[in-house]
Design a protein that fits this description.
about 190 residues; alpha+beta; 5 strands
Length: about 190
Amino acid sequence: MLATHCTACGRLILFLRRTVWERWTGAGDRGIRAQKDTMVWPTGGARSRLPKEVPPKHAKEYREAALVLSGSAKASAAISRRCLQLLLREAAGVKPCDLAAEIQEVLDRKMLPTHLAEAIDAIRTLGNFAAHPIKSKNTGEIISVEPGEAEWLLDTLDGLFDFFFVRPAVLNRKRDALNKKLADAGKSPLK
């Protein structure tokens, strides 16, 4: 067991270290030793806490996707896609359909910044790997979702939460503070 602290927040991080013999090199030789570290605390990886502006039902789905990430990238990606679909239906007001069509509707509206639009567009491709067995044309093997791809889905959700919930809430608080100041000065409030 290895223990360290996050350099950003100071919280404890625990890793389980396993020593694995990778391969045998010959008679009497024990092989090549490798160490594999698996983060066991905090569960769900090193995802930062969600801002309070993210509604509980979205936060619950997100936290579940983060929690299972280390055990199953495929499960995490599937839950993240479900979270994305809920988000697009409720925050962007898309017509319920399949996720690919819902993403296309948001893209057609051109409502997202370019980096988020490109990310959700790519999620359609990643989503097929998570939900449907797709085979490599070169090897014939089923292509699986890698942890980095599932992590990318969570990063995209972070950006969408910021766009739909956090930034509007911050701007509302600033506008309310300015309107109070204007009212104290006998001026009309901002619209």
